[in-house]
Amino acid sequence: MTEDERKSWLTVQDEVRRLIRQRDWKPGELIPHEADLAREFGCARATVNRALRGLADAGLLERRRKAGTRVALNPVRRAEFSIPIIREEIEGKGQRFGYRIFLREMRVPPPDVQARLQLNVAQPILYLKTLYTADSRPYVFEERWINSIAVPDVLDADFEVLSPNEWLVREVAFDGGDFTFSGVAATAEEAAILTCRVGEGLLVLERTTRHGGLMITYVRLLFHPGYQIHTRC
Amino acid sequence: MTEDERKSWLTVQDEVRRLIRQRDWKPGELIPHEADLAREFGCARATVNRALRGLADAGLLERRRKAGTRVALNPVRRAEFSIPIIREEIEGKGQRFGYRIFLREMRVPPPDVQARLQLNVAQPILYLKTLYTADSRPYVFEERWINSIAVPDVLDADFEVLSPNEWLVREVAFDGGDFTFSGVAATAEEAAILTCRVGEGLLVLERTTRHGGLMITYVRLLFHPGYQIHTRC
DNA sequence: CAGTGGTCTAGACCACCGG
DNA sequence: CGGTGGTCTAGACCACTGC
Lengths: 233, 233
Known about the structure:
By secondary structure, the first copy, chain A, is of the alpha+beta class. Helices cover about 25% and strands about 35% of the residues of chain A.
C-alpha cells in the first residue's frame, strides 16, 4: 500500500506533475482541494500547499481562493536566464579574459538614452566604449552610459584595474533592471571592432539598471557572431 | 515601538531587502540566524524562513546549513521571460493574427536536427514552414520539425483550423525545453518571406521541446526586423 | 559534534470571491 | 454566505556540513 511512502512536498509535487503529464488531470480541469490531497497523500495541508504553490509559481497550475486549483490551460512557460558577468562567463569556458577601453568621455546622451535613464536635462554623463575579449578574440562590444550624476564616484574610477562592468557590480547594489534582446546587422564600425563582416547578424542585449529609484546605467552589448544565449525550462 | 507592526513573510522580506539595499548588511556578510530574526521581527521562525527562502531563490541571499545565511556577493541576477504563444502575443497588441503554411512534408532532418530530437535513425519526419502575421504583416517565420514518430497523431492534424504551434500546445503536454537566442542576417529566402532587406539583422529563437523522455519538436523562429524580447528583473 | 537551515505537523484565523 | 487557498504559529525532528 501507500503507507510507507516518503512524504515531503517534493514527493507531492512529483506526483502532481505525473498526474498532469499523464493527463489524469487535464488542462483546465479542477483538481481536489488541498485538504483532500493532504488526506490522500497522508501529509499536512501545509505540505500540499507548499507543493502546489510551487507548481502555480511555475505556471503549471492556476489557483484562486474559493474557485480552487486548475491545471493551467496554457502552461505559462517561463524560462530563466542568468545575467552574464562577462569575465566569469569567459573564464568559465577556460578562456582568458581581457578588455580594452576605446573611448571614455563625458557626452550628452541622445534622447532615447536620456529617456531610459530618466534624465530630464540634457547634461553630459559618462560614456564608454569597451571591447571584451576571450583569448584575445573579440567577444562582446559594450557601449555604456553611466548616470554619473547619480554615481559621481564613477568619474574617479580606474577602469584599467577593474572593468566598468565589474566596477559597477562592486560599487552599486543593483536593484533591478530591464532587458531587451534583438538582432542587428553589423555596421562598418562594429564589424571593424568585432573583426567580422559588415552586415553579419549579431545578437544585441540592451540593459537598463536601477538602484532605489534611480536609473544607474544603460548598456548595449553587441556579441560576436555565433554567440548564443542558452536557457532551459 | 515595533509592537504593533503587521507581521508577514512579505514584511520580513521587504525589511531584509531594505537592509541589503542600504548596505546595513553588506555583500558577503553573514546575517543573523532565523531564530534571532524571528525574535526580532516578533514572528515565528517558519515565517522568517519563508521570507529568506524567497530571497535565496531570487539570488539575493546564499544559505547553507550550519554556515548560515550571507548576502550574495554577485547577486545572481536572473531574468524570466514567458514563452510567447504567438497568437496571444499578437492579439494582445490588438492586432489581427493570421498564418500561412508554406510547406508541409515528410523529410529527413539534417544531422543537427536529428541530434536535437535524439533520433538515431535517418527517418523522414514532419517538416513545416509557416509564416505568422499580425494585421497581415509578416511577424515571425517558423521552421518546425515534429517528431512524428513520437506524436503520430500529428500526421492527421488539420493545421488550417489550428496553427501547428497551438495544435501542439493543446495535444501534447510539454514538459520542458531548451531555448537559444541568437542574431542572424536575413537570407534571400527569409527576406522574401518576411518582406525585409536581404542581410537585415533578425532575432532568432530556437526551441526544443520535451515530453516525458521524448523530444517532441524543434522549432526555429525568425522574427521580423525590429522585434524585441523584453523582460525585467 | 553541534549549529544551522529545511521540512513537517496540527491547528488556527483570515482574505478573497464565486454562487 | 461559505468554501477555498494564503498565511501564521509553536513545536518538533532531521540533514547537512563547518569546526
